[in-house]
Amino acid sequence: MKRRSLLILLACTALVAAGGGAWWWRAGQAQSRVAALLPALPDLSSAPAALRERVVQADARARSRLGAAKGFAALSRVYHANGFLEEARHCYEGLEQIEPAEPRWPHLLANILAGYGEIEPALELWRKVRELAPDYLPAPLRSGDSLLKVNRPQEAAAAYEAVLKLDAENPYALLGLARLDLAAGRWEQARPRLEQVVSKTNYTLGYDLIVSLYERMGLNQRATDIRGMAKASGAYRDAADPWLDGLIEDCLDPYRLSLAAGTTARNGDPATARRLLERAIEVAPEDVSVRFQYGTLLVELGDLAGAIGPLRLCTELSPDFSDGWAHLSSLQARLGEAVAAERTLAQGLKNCPQSPGLHLQYARTLQQAGRIGEAIAEFQASIRLRPNEPDAYLDLGNLYIRQQRNAEGMAEMRRALEAEPGHPMALSVLAFNAIITGDEAEAQRCLAAVRAQPRVPREQVQKLVSSYREQFGRAPP
């Protein structure tokens, strides 16, 4: 009986050993296959220490017998997230061979190729993504955008229509179709699409296009109304792409983290922006630009006490960084620390004597304190250092007007208009001055300029028109 039990035990041990051996053999096969596909390590000499360590660890894991495939995937993310695009491309090409049914690899590779201008291979990859993950909308959206860029309108329209079949109000697909309509002169078709886009996105998408369209259609008042109530964001915002956007979690490059934080904050997610900046500070604690961005973000979030430390550190790490001094002083003033704020400005000017912004801020502080002569001198210093911007001219002009020095004040307003033609405040002040001094010809000229400037609030225009009627007994032409 004992002999039989021993034989059974030996047989089971042999089976386990055989199974384990087979598993170990397969793991070795996977390791060899991954190792053959891995790119060489890039030059990491200038990379932050944390990034160097992460790359080396991921590369080592990909070369190990245990978890080679997962290590390979992790390495691809680290490379892509931190701007090593050639290495990431190499990884994705290998991962496609190992996991041909995974749609992430062709999608991420297509984004890299499209960025290089290799549109045809990128489009082929996005076709594969649509087959593997038909509900993942960023693939047809990016296909449509790429096809639009290379002037293949019918194929681009088909890609956008494919998105709308899954999401009937997708603003990016509607915007793409509207662009195709505009290019083909189909204004009546473009209009409802653009109106839906701006309504759905609160003018963060389609602002410039719809204003231009209304002007082409002769709807000038509508175009003017939109300009008066909304401002262009200044940058096109890509549609959300979770597979691509999620790479930021593997980023250890402070510059890229800073850019991503800025975009995230503008898109209404300050909490994520804060987290990204905190990671950037951890990676590069002496990076002044990151510290400054973090401090200004805290101010925007209302954490004024928390912002003091990062902004003060900016002045210590880089005493010649004028914005650090300016924002620290402004924050101290908001916290009611007037003496500290003025002392900070003085220290900033000592370290940055050629900073027009610091001279302007100091002039405003002096004016508020009633030290008018000193304030005028600081305004003039700011103008000498930066004559092509209107702010100091406007402040100095308004100060002269309060001092009953109207001729000097109007001269500064005209200089502000030279620095920035069409500036709404300068136009309004010059128009009002012409009205109250009885210069009807000049008043008419200035009012015409005011009416043509959409940045002047309607209420302000109406007040000027009423003043003109009271002064001259008739409405302006």
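Second entry:
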Amino acid sequence: MEINPDIFRAYDIRGIYPSELNEKTSYLVGRAFVKFFKKTKPNVVIGRDARFSSDFLSKSLIKGINEQGANVIDIGLATTPMLYFAVAHYGFDGGVIVSASHNPSKYNGFKLVAKNAIPVSGESGLRQIKKLAEKAQDLSTLKKGKTIKKNILSDYLKFNLGKFDFKNFRPLRMVIDTANAVPGILVKEIFKHSHFKVFYLFLQLNGSFPNHEPNPLIEKNLRFLKKEILIKKRIDLGVAFDGDGDRIVFLDEAGRAVPSDLVLALISEQILKENPGKKILYDLRCSNIVKETISKCKGKPIISRVGHSFIKEKMRKENILFAGEFSGHFYHKDHYFSESPLFVLFKIMEIISKKEKPFSELIRPFKKYFHSGEMNFRAKDSVKKLKQLKSRYSDGRISKIDGLRIDFKDWWFLARASNTEPVLRLIVEAKTKELMEKKTKEISSLILRP
């Protein structure tokens, strides 16, 4: 059988079900993943999100893994951070979460990790697994491994709640939108015995995501959450998760989305009070206020390229305590250098409780600059466009960590090719709104020019 090569991406395997990714492909990937370990009878954790196709794909994946001689620890419905936790916390050899993250329901895919929940990306193994999967149908059947079902929810919640005592928090009022996706299995369990008043949106699992796509970075997907905050009144915090629960987005008491880089700045300030001098990482899309805040609080700011596999590798190498991305991913050393959305949620709740100020007031000091947000442009030749931009703005401080970032005294911009789509992404930040709008228009016209 010929496997669609396009499903192998920079960070994961992803495609439309069943035309691009189906049970046969899943079975072959399972066998290839075991072969990739080069170990006799590895123990592999499998979890899945709430998409309708996830159950079918996980079953064929498990079959492939078992028939290649490995044991499977089936944790069932799980968020991606739960899968990472299971692999690292219990010391298993690796794992796969069956999920297409925030994509629409017609998509599905696999995120793969090795021991200690270290990502298997294009550079660290996915290309090899692709080649092995293409040959997997010719592999002889080994002595089958076994499948063990394991419920990790209680351990995962206990782990996340370990450093927080809700009794010391004031009785916050929150609205949480889980988009009919798998984070719904977590949130009600967390708060069912607490003194918080929590209103839930779209808690029931439904793999077609009937109310809105599970991508909280798209503004229209937050409309129900915003409306609920305004209807309920006296709400302290709005929270939205993505489809596999590895990203978290916040709204303030007025229903306004709070940029994730400003959330990172606020949490960094608090973390550095508790852990002076520690390193905190941010990706190069983040506002300059993040670096300035970390430095002001006597921490060590570390800039990184975009992408969870690169960030986790850098955190491990440099012993970085905490990290955040512009896209709403947050990572913690104590969480096995993996995504830690519940830690971030509890930390924000803790800060609001201690400061006794509205969320918007806590964020206001970090609104120093004017940030365009990330814009996408269809680009046939991204390399050519980046060369043109580099030539045009060569008088600035040039960085090529990821794409092209050029800094000037009063503004900066970042242009980078997407790792997952044929687009060029642009961000502009400036000290004034007028300068930001002027430079955004100027650079956009250069990108769009034939």
